[in-house]
Protein 1
Amino acid sequence: MTAIRLALLGALAGALAAQSGMDTCVGCHGALEGPLAKPAAAFEADVHKARGFSCVNCHGGDPTVLDPAASMSRARGFKGKIDRRATPGLCASCHNDATLIHRFNPRQRVDQLAQYRTSVHGRRLAAGDTRVANCVDCHGVHGIREVRDPLSPVHPLRLPETCARCHSDSDRMKGYGIVTDQFEKYRRSVHWEALSRRGDLSAPSCATCHGNHGAAPPGVATVVHVCGSCHVVFENLFAKSPHKKAFDELGIPGCVVCHGNHEVARPTMALVGVQPGSLCLNCHGESDKGRQAAAFMRSRIDELATALDGSEEILKRAERSGMEVSPALVELSHGRESLIRAKVELHGFDPVLVDGSVKKGLGIAAAAHRAGEKALQERDFRRKGLLMSLATIAVTMAALWLALRELERPGKKG
Amino acid sequence: MFRRALDWVGNRAGLEGAQDFLKHKTVPVHSGTIWYYLGGVTLFLFVIQVLTGMLLLLYYRPTPTEAFESVQFIVTQVEFGWLIRSVHSWAANLMVLTALLHMFSVFFLKAYRKPRELTWLSGMALLLLTFAFGFSGYLLPWNTLAYFATKVGTDMAGAVPVVGRFLRHFLRGGEEVTGATLTRFFGFHVAVLPGLTTLLLLLHLALVQKWGISSPKRPGGSGPAMPFYPNFVLRELIGWYGALGVLGMLAALFPWELGTKADPFASAPAGIRPEWYFLAVFFTLKLIPGKVLIFNGEALGILVFGLAAVGWMLVPFWDNRSEDEKRHLALTGGGVFVIAYLAVFSALGYWR
């Protein structure tokens, strides 16, 4: 029955193809039902179709021939369903061709296959494990869209979910010895918050740290570089810090020791110092020099934050009283910058470095506080002045009124 | 000694005439006499404006790069600069208020009737000049609110039928509100408007002197009166001191805000609105649809407001009952309606 339908459809599609140049693959598969119809339907939205490619470019065969048996014959190069191991090579037959690809997008890279071969996915596939991801698992098949298309599974907003399709599947991950809670943790991170809530498409997702085509877990030695690709200043400070050498010797990674990896939380000052809950205590013992340094840096930063808050409070009070204190508030914002700088400099784990910024900020906070006090004194002076002026005015008005009454007293001659 | 000095000046300046004039000048006394003082208080506030304006001129610099900073310098660094600037701003607003009250009191007392039509017209022109003072002065600190309010205001001027485009270009000194607008507004504010106001004020006062202060007609001649000097002058002085007290209180307790420096490239902040005395017109124009029949809504609104203002100014010429002091219910009702409209629409414009 199916053979008869295919023959009839083929004849019809062939007739149409002959007249209009129509693709008989799409003609037949579009008229079918079930799984065989899906590729034709999905291909309608495919970026390759929009660029003028068709089924034949991947699957071979002859889309101009009426007879399905002939158009899908091996003799005409028909490949049928692509073997998973062959997929990367097949995609690369075009995507490795700079001349071809740059006709459509001059900025597109053409080293995806080379990168893929270095990835865990690529290496496992080469070793015969066909359960690992290849191009179509991430980009889709037949309905492939551009990365910038929000419906693409590799659009920045959708990529974490795409990776999680496999990596959160505990059955699928069984045997690979890797955890499956990355996505869950990532969705509690500041990175996900920036990406999903603030819509910052440059915020990190899976591929930013692990790579996309060359996806691999960063090793101990490279974690700092991965984070440092965005957090450059922190990387530089850490590289010069005493922690760098100690971490290297202990064989533990950098940033993630304190900040975590997938679940990077918003850092607070509670992480620093010697109070319960501080991360410094995880390594530094009671009489440790590092412990003293942590206590010192924390207390200095707290001191600056308190001083800045106090200065802001007094300036705001003066502002609410109608005093013009905007220049002092601008100055105070420079003090806030010093506080931020001191917190950044914490990553150098050098008390002297942190203290430099704290001292500068404290100087600014003190000047702002003085400006606030001066403004409040000025406000009080104005109010006293007003009171005295109003009293003088009232007395003068009363005197004038009395003079007028005296002048207009009945019987008094004007 | 003082007496001798006074006599010396009097003999040479011929002040005997003035003394004689003051001795004989009287002011009518009746139930509406209290309203007479509003004109004097407005004059007092104008003098305060001139004096404080001259002091501000010592430091103010009318360029987009320096205007805001110079005003900031005045209110933060110059000794009592804050007071001068705050008094100048508050006095401007109080002056508009007292001028409006003065106008309505003259309107309801029908003091514009023959032969005081010119006094009314010169007073109306002075009120318009007061508005112009407010509008031009508002931009001078070059802060965000002032910048965008001027943009909106000059856009409204641009909607005036026929001459709108020219008017907007003339006011702005170009297509946009720029440094050229600031220089222009500064020129209007400190030279053109004070000059015109002084001339008109002299005319207004001369007319008041010529025809005397209006009083209700009484059967059997004029009613009671009080000597202008010292009785009326002393009362006026009490009014001026009262105004000074209110002004000082406002300036010291609610110093006029400076805001943030204007950034022509920033988007307009929410809630931009003009000064309170333009709010009713501003809000009404906002309510008018973009197109009314085949006409541009805003242009039509401005045309209607313009015609209403002209009608109001010409009231002495069409109020045919004022001379006999007959009640003109429609006119009095119209006056009450105008006050109610201004109050309600100003409040709506402020809160919405």
Protein 2
Amino acid sequence: MVNDTKKKSRIGHVVIYIFLAITTFISIFPFYFMFISGSNTNKDILSNPPKLSFGPYLAENFKMLSERMDILLTTYNTLFVSIVYTLLAVFIYSAAGYILAKFNFVGRTVIFGFIMLSMMIPTQVLYVPWFKMMIGAGMTDSHWGVILPMLANSFGVFLMRQNMLSFPTALIEAARIDGSTETRTFFSIVLPNVKPALGALVIYMFTSMWNNFMWPLIILGSKTKYTFPVALAMLDGNPTNKNYAVIMLATSIATLPILIIFLIFQKQFVAGVMGGSVKE
Amino acid sequence: MKKKVLLIFTLLMVSMTAFTACSKEEGSKENENEKVTLTVWSWDVALKQLEASAERFKETNPDVEFVFEEMGTEQIYAKLSTGLATGDGLGDIITLEGEQLSGYASNYPEGFLELNDIVKKDDFLPVKMGEVTVNGKVYGFPWDAGPIAMFYRTDYFEQAGVKAEEIITWEDFIEAGKKVAATCTTPSGDPVMMLPIAPTSTNFYRMLLLQLGQGFFDAEGNTILNTDASVKALNLEKKIFDSGIALSYNGWDEYEGTVANESVATIPEAVWMIGTIKDKAPQTSGKWGVMNMPAFSSGENHGATNGGSLLAINAKTKNAEMAKKFVEFAMTDEQLLVDGFTNYGLYPSYMPVYSNAVFAQGDEFFGGQKVYQTFIEIGKVIPTINYTENFAEALDTVGSSVTKVLLQDADVQETVDKLQSDLVSKFGK
Amino acid sequence: MKRGKGETKSLWRRLNSLKNFPYFLIAPTVIIFVVFMVYPIVYSLILSFQEFKHGTYSFVGLKNYIVLFKDPIFYKALMNTFFYLIVQVPIMIGLALIIAVFVEEKHVKGKAFWRTSIFLPSITALVAYALVFKVLFNGDYGLINYVISALGGDKVQWFYSKWPARFSIIISITWRWTGYNMIILLAGLQAIPESVYESAAIDGAGFWKKLTYITVPMVKPILLFTTITSTIGTLQLFDEPYVLTQGGPDYATITIGQYLYNNGFVYMNFGYASAIGYVMVFIIGILSVLQFKIKDN
């Protein structure tokens, strides 16, 4: 009887490992395919079966790509909008989250209620008005035009509020009794103690802007201002003369930075999704 | 912690100033530069041709700098539909497909520069003048035209015992196609089909419709998709598709593949297909001919057109005069147009160049046939049709109707009636 | 100079008073949401009663809505979006739950590795991964078709026939988002006290019993959270059909978000696009209320 259960659970273990291995393979394979395809030719990719190992054409593809897309400038553009957006968002949302979680003031329910409700507004609805506003402000075809409207991100506020809720109120009150000003309390007591949440917010904001496609596509006109997703779509848009190797190389270059950041900060990434921490 | 916050703020400030500095730099650059800079949006061979034109233009206008940006058509249109409201971030000179101009020009009448003064109406093929004229004003400079003829494989025809000159009507064409499909095989051993058809695209239907002298809209912009001509065209497409002589394909890659793999005996396509055929199937040199399109057994038989582009100038350009000068030069200089034609198959719509010896030459790839004369004749009988601001949307919807008829066996009459009423409800006319 | 200093000081003090402080800190958020959320919502409502033609906007009353309710493509987009919702969301959440439970199993080694690699897809840009899938799904040369034909099946024209096109999009979204939901569920699973499982094990409960009687009920709130966020995400679906199928063939894969985009930014019917947006808001509102009602029960 005991043996039987053991055997059963051993089979169960094997099943679990096989399942996880397959899922992991499916999750990782497209990345592998993308990276190796960037070093092959268009013909290698469009053959039966496609070539599945690294090829010698990386330099050549890179040269072709740099003729059609300014890689450095695109990287700078994407970094710029992502970093500025993230910095602004972190400051604004952590302040908002703190206030919404720890203070009682007139209008709190209305403000928080509206922010929660606006999570349900499909972003596409906002594009037309945003676009007209940006025309009015003379901010079309500018990076600020990409950044500013995107700051109305309800999930970011929500994430910070949830994290601030669990911050011990006693600490804040103790600081007040010690004569610390409200500003000081916020900057030197509250913020340092919610570092994991801040890390999570940073990563959430950064990736969402790095990967943002539709709004930059609408607002950015000049090639010199494109971010990666827009530049990639442009590269793919030419129906004749399509070179998938070059496209895959460009995709790899666009994915690499975020992949590296992810591997370095994976704990915060994972924690960031829920705003809570995941144990080992 | 305070330090870190400070650091974040400093970083923020630095990046902000860096940004303003950047944008200032751009501004000052233009000021200190006495040279005029023209940004040109184009794609593919058109881009290459414009680059060559720019080199020639600079010989006499050394103060002009050109910036060329390669963009696909979809991207250009995505930018135009929003960017034309302000003109910000658009190129100075923009290439468009002929049929697309009317949508942008009628929605944004202030978006493009009027070119009435430099486009001389009688110099261009009437069909192109139709494309560039929107509400009585000329908003684009006509470039290449796409008169359609039937490319055919002389070797396959011979093998099947089919004679090109005996194919007069589409009925003849279908019969000949059956013979070809029964007798010929491709180098890889598959049966040869008579022609390629994309069941999810409107190309073949629009071509047939044009042969009957109409487009999607009448001169007043009313939708006319349930006319007899429309039913006739769609019925014929379905008949050809169902008769087992068509090779179904999807997308440009596969279209090229039908040529490269030698799997079709004919291709009804515009003159620019010459370039693709030579490029993708060099092994078939000498095995091609060009004939007139088969006719509908009764009714009118006009020429048809597919593709062909034009140049438009952003109304907010800082260098309107120079842009106009360049466009006029690139689009009317005989040597440039001839080069564009021989190098890239850009078939000019500027009629004065037709007298050039190049167009009277025979082509070895086509067994010495004087193919260009055929296209010149067809070019003159293409009907002028109205595109209107609703063309892009109608094109999508028509495409879905064609798909329904060809792939889902929908009734032709019902489908076009529904198409007509849906579009009338949407466009209000 | 002195006076200025005094002013800043009193401003500083005023800012720091318990009464004022919250307003100062919440102000940026309020301003941003008023400017970029409240105003556009009102604006697009007004826009939805207007028509853009020949460079000007004119008031047309309910016309856009009337046309919309007769627009067959809108219904197609609606049906497609609901199809994705009904088929894709349950598959994905179910898969995410199973993976999370497996990774959380006590004896499973290399938890961090499995977690990280399965989460990996959700960091990719939508455009980037859609491009990779476009190549993998290619009808003639795609690896997926190669595997299918190697296994003895027929090649599938993924992007050119109705159902395969829809499934190509479902497969792509599932690949992109399963890991993300898995992590969320993982956080929920870890909150379940070990003792609950232990006592269940003593009672002789097997794997499935534990899953259905303990795990699922305990993570119910988190399941609801993932379902709601996935629902909102699916209703706004745009990038994948835009890159993979352009909404075709015959509008078989078009989503509401994409139809809105086409009308506004391709056909330049900004008023009509706003009307679509408003109908969308209405639908999302109803769905959210429904889902919360279910939760209350």
